[in-house]
């Protein structure tokens, strides 16, 4: 009787969570309706800051969607059994986050009704057009990869499909980094370091999301993760976090080396108001140093610590993206080095930005879409990792 009561409670909780996710997604659609009806004037965006809070959510979801596939790639391409057992769940998360991120991106850029015009008038010289192919290709390849893993008759094709996904996800994240690397209209961007930086960031962010979802699934099914497997994956998360810090530090040190970038770096790291605070306290301390302590400090590193570290890595990701995307646009382009530039259009001035509630609702709507896809899929199909007795390799 006790088991039946617990089963009924879980069933009700499932539908409550699903309804909550649906309400958040509807709130996101309401925000889109308001922005379509009244224009972007009701958002915090302006002529200087054209990518606002929704882009922070969208870029996080897209980058993490690529990074979470690292779990699947280690299993399929490199033959590590504990990761291979998690490849279906990692692929599902990738599709779910990509769907959420692209929904936010499409609805935030304005005129989603003209999407077909953009698709049928392809501009091969635009990095944004390249990314349309990369995103649609990613969806298709991951779906095929998932099919080869879930359908027993197709298992023989799992490794080639995994190899294709492994290559494509590197290209996709490179494409995301290239959007900023090719953008020379802001001091923050236009650096060849950005594509590799986004690739390494995706490793940490994707694995952090995977840790959180895996913990929830194990708790929901009243199972416990093998401590040896947890030890292996949390060490990998720690390495990815260190790698992320290294690339971000290299990006800023490279900028500091060039005199024309010193003003921007001083703004972002020292006296830019909310941006230095978010960078040092949000990204460096909460998003990197504290997770590393939770992972590696003797006596810590247990399941709760790893989940807390993963959540902090995700929070740090949002802090870094806010600084990079919003702060990068807020600082004016140095059009004529050595001269002061001013105009009635705001040239030479630091732009202000205050995100509106509609932007937050749209971004949260993207997270809700990813949540709903994951929740329903896990309920309908078996994405629970099937671990065998762990043998260190």
Could you outline the blueprint of secondary structure elements for this entry?
Blueprint: H1 2-38, H2 53-67, H3 69-76, H4 81-84, H5 87-108, H6 115-120, H7 127-150, H8 158-181, H9 194-220, H10 227-257, H11 262-271, H12 274-296, H13 303-330, H14 357-380
Helix pairs in contact: 1-14, 2-5, 2-8, 2-9, 2-13, 2-14, 3-5, 3-8, 5-7, 5-14, 7-8, 8-9, 9-10, 9-13, 10-12, 10-13, 11-12, 12-13
Please, could you describe this protein's structure?
With 393 residues, the protein is mainly α. Helix content is 72%, strand content 0%. It has helices at residues 2-38, 53-67, 69-76, 81-84, 87-108, 115-120, 127-150, 158-181, 194-220, 227-257, 262-271, 274-296, 303-330, 357-380. Belongs to the NrfD family. InterPro entries: Electron_transfer_protein, NrfD-like.
Question: Mean pLDDT across all residues, rounded?
Answer: 88
> Strand fraction band?
under 5%
Quick one: overall form? globular
pLDDT < 50 runs, ≥5 residues: none
H/I helix tally: 14
Order of helices and strands: HHHHHHHHHHHHHH
Helix content: over 70%
Query: Structural class of the secondary structure composition?
Result: mainly alpha
The total strand number stands at 0
Give Rg in angstroms. 22 Å
- Alpha carbon gap, first and last residue: 44 Å
Largest sheet: none
């Amino acid at each position: 009787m006790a088991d039946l009561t617990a089963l009924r409670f879980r069933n009700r909780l499932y539908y409550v969570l699903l309804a909550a996710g649906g309400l958040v997604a509807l709130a996101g659609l309401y925000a889109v309706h308001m922005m379509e009806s009244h224009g972007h004037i009701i958002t915090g965006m302006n002529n200087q800051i054209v990518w606002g809070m929704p882009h922070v959510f969208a870029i996080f979801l897209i980058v993490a969607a690529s990074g979470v596939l690292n779990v699947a790639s280690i299993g399929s391409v490199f033959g590590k059994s504990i990761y291979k057992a998690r490849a279906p769940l990692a692929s599902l998360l990738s599709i779910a986050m990509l769907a959420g991120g692209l929904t936010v991106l499409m609805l935030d850029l304005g005129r989603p009704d003209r999407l077909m015009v953009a698709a049928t008038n392809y501009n091969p010289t635009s990095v944004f057009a390249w990314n349309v192919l990369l995103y649609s290709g990613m969806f298709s390849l991951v779906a095929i990869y998932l099919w080869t893993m879930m359908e027993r008759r197709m298992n023989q094709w799992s490794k080639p499909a995994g190899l294709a996904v492994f290559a494509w996800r590197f290209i996709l994240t490179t494409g995301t980094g290239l959007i900023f690397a090719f953008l020379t209209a802001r001091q923050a961007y236009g650096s060849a370091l950005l594509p590799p930086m986004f690739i390494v960031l995706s490793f940490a962010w994707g694995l952090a999301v995977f840790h959180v979802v895996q913990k929830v699934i194990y708790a929901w099914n009243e199972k416990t993760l093998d401590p040896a497997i947890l030890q292996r994956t949390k060490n990998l998360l720690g390495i990815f976090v260190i790698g992320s810090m290294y690339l971000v530090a290299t990006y800023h040190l490279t900028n500091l080396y060039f005199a024309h970038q010193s003003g921007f770096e001083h703004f972002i790291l020292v006296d830019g108001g909310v941006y230095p605070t978010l960078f040092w306290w949000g990204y460096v301390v909460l998003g990197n140093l504290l997770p590393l302590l939770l992972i590696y400090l003797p006596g810590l590193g247990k399941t709760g610590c790893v989940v807390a570290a993963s959540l902090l890595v995700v929070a740090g990701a949002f802090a870094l993206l806010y600084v990079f995307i919003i702060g990068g646009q807020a600082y004016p382009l140095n059009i004529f080095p050595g001269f002061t530039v001013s105009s009635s259009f705001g040239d030479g001035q630091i732009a202000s930005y205050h995100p509106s509630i509609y932007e937050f609702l749209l971004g949260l709507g993207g997270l809700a879409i990813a949540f709903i896809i994951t929740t329903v899929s896990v309920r309908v199909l078996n994405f629970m990792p099937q671990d065998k007795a762990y043998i260190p390799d």
